[in-house]
Amino acid sequence: MMTTVTANRRRSGRWTREMNEIRFFTAARWVVVGVLVISTAFPFYYMGFLSVQGAGAVLNDPGALWVTWSQLNLDAYKSVVLPVTSGGEGFLSFIGNSLLLALGTVVLTLLVSIPGSYAVSRLRFFGRRQVSVLFLAVYLFPSILLAVPLFVFFTKVGLNGSLVAVLIVYISQSVAVSIYMLRNYFDTIPVSLEEAAALDGCGRLQTLWRISLPLARPAILANGLFVFMFAWNEFLFALLFLVQDRSRWTVSLGLSELTGNSVDVPTTVLMAAAVITTIPIIILFFASERLLADGLTTGAEKG
Amino acid sequence: MNQLVNVGGADQSSAPPAPPTGSTGAARARRGALRRSEARAGFGLIAPTVVIVLVVVVLPIIWSISLSFQHVRLLNLRTAGIFGEYSFDNFVGVFTAPGFVGTLAATLAYSVLGTGFSILFGLIAALALRKRFRGRGIVRSLMLLPYVAPVVAVTFVWSTLLNPQYGFVNYWGKHLFGWKNPVAFLSQQTSEISIFGIHIAVPIALLTVIAFEAWRQFPFAFLFITARLQAAPASLEEAARVDGATISQRFRYIVWPQLLPTIAVLAVLRFIWTFTKFDDIYLLTGGAAGTQVISVRIYDFLIGNGDIGLASAQAVVLAIVLAALVGIYMRFFARREETS
């Protein structure tokens, strides 16, 4: 085989189609990689760049791209975080709301989806197949279609404006994906381990707690991170249910309300708010990239 | 990837092995009891999830359909019940409300082009990052940022960059490319562009939100296609290379056919989600300048007009149009799969 290859090469000379293509695609590949890196990273760089400038810098020099040490100015962060009573935007309380919602969603979702996914993966019961199909349908179902009836329902029962309503909606939105991801993982754990535990006298719940859960820890961790990111980033339901009362705003809602309604908040301050909204996600993402890249393909975020 | 394809039908493999067949009646009874206890445990463990999904997803859908036939407004909500007067007025309202055709066209253009470009860029990215090089891991992680970052933050950066007064893009457009007037990317419906003397009205705002969609969603396609490429056997391409196939020929005849099923699934998923997308357009343009897609219209009917019945009817229409389009696509694709 080697001889035919070298013979081909020798025969083909310098400017054959193959050589041209190799030259072209090698160059094109680096151009593409360069364009991709710049176009994905630049908006994030610009976000951070504007957030460390004094107010009015954008208006004075809209084409600027870097900041010197002497121009470095962290006032924007100060006025974002300070409470409204001290002349700030009160982002600290938005962060509190977002954390509460996101952590609550993670804990409660895992609490119902771990046993649920175990049941779908391991136990034979009537309707198991139907339940799986139902969850897939829920996962594909667009959330805007739920917006109207849920808004009406929570307004009727007087829960509009409460974090509890949003928490319930978030759980319902994440539980289907969560079961789906975890079931796939439980399916890869050999049943024999659980049978051995059963022979040693473990009950069903004890087996789940002692054998299956520790084995599924990476999947549970990935799933928890995934749900956290969903709840932290979520916008539509926060807008529908929480917009009336500023003390209930999440970071996402706070940022959008401040950009939409107030002319008086300087762009640099809003950029600092955007950085604060984005940083937790970026940190979590880079810390857990290995875990998440798989998770994103199996349980893709709706949206 | 495969996991996503065989969703729904994936349970067969996971059933625990059947217990060995016993012969005595006592053993059979015990097995029946075991089976019943297993079923009971299964129900118990799955019940909380099923209850949540039924109460917060399934019931609201049914209720929404019922609402779409009733005259319900936010103002008279307290008095409205499940058994009101039913009529088709809301559906008539949906089709006759000003701008319905424009909304449908914008939604279609947005979802078809948004889906197409995000998959195209995802494919190009996946191919460019296929061969190992120094720093590939970092580049891959960077590539996922638009997809995982909070939508509110990235839409805000985009609208700052594209701002006609102090936006970075317009500044350099003016200084580098000599644009005479700043382009209002997010608030200008159309712009006349003349190429070789032909004047074409370009939908500026709509194209901008499509570009945003492609930017934000291409990582999703990139992830899927990369996963598929990694699973493709190297021996096929190696054999083709030895036989003298060039890079483009190897892509056309070896790689592309293997990617096609993945891309087909991606197209359906992305189309469904883009067709019903609300956040991005609401945050970028608020639905102004010819970018009012159906989901933004539902929101406007609900919050702006306070007309719950009309908003529900619009949501039902959205669901029907979406189901029809996906159905047509599925049939078309299934037929093509059979013939090829």
Précis, in short:
Chain A is about 75% helix and about 0% strand.
Per-chain topology:
The complex is a heterodimer of chains A (303) and B (340).
Chain A: H1 2-12, H2 17-51, H3 57-60, H4 75-81, H5 91-122, H6 128-140, H7 144-156, H8 163-188, H9 191-199, H10 204-215, H11 217-233, H12 236-242, H13 251-261, H14 267-287, H15 289-298
Helix pairs in contact in A: 2-14, 4-14, 5-8, 5-11, 6-8, 7-12, 8-11, 8-12, 9-10, 11-15, 13-14
Chain B: H1 2-5, H2 25-67, H3 89-96, H4 100-128, H5 136-148, H6 151-161, H7 168-176, E1 191-195, E2 198-202, H8 204-231, H9 234-242, H10 247-275, H11 279-284, H12 294-304, H13 308-339
Antiparallel strand pairs in B: 1-2
Helix pairs in contact in B: 3-13, 4-8, 4-10, 5-8, 8-10, 9-10, 10-13, 12-13
- Quote the average pLDDT of chain B: 82
Give the uncertain stretches of chain A in residue-range form: 299-303
What gap, in angstroms, lies between the N and C termini of chain B?
22 Å
Cα distance spanning the termini of chain A? 50 Å
Proportion in helices of chain B: 55-70%
- The first-level CATH class name of the largest domain in chain A: Mainly Alpha
Quote the average pLDDT of chain A.
82
Give the tally of β-strands of chain B.
Answer: 2
Radius of gyration of chain A: 26 Å
Instruction: Give the helices and strands of chain A as they follow along the chain.
Output: HHHHHHHHHHHHHHH
Secondary structure tally, helices of chain B: 13
CATH topology of the largest domain in chain A: MetI-like fold
Integer-rounded radius of gyration of chain B = 26 Å
Q: Provide the domain count of chain A.
A: 2
Low-pLDDT parts of chain B are 1-22
**Helical region count of chain A?**
15
- Decide which structural class fits the backbone of chain A: mainly alpha
Kindly report the name of the CATH homologous superfamily of the domain at 99-168 and 205-339 in chain B.
MetI-like
What global shape of chain A is seen? globular
Please give the largest β-sheet of chain B. 2 strands, antiparallel
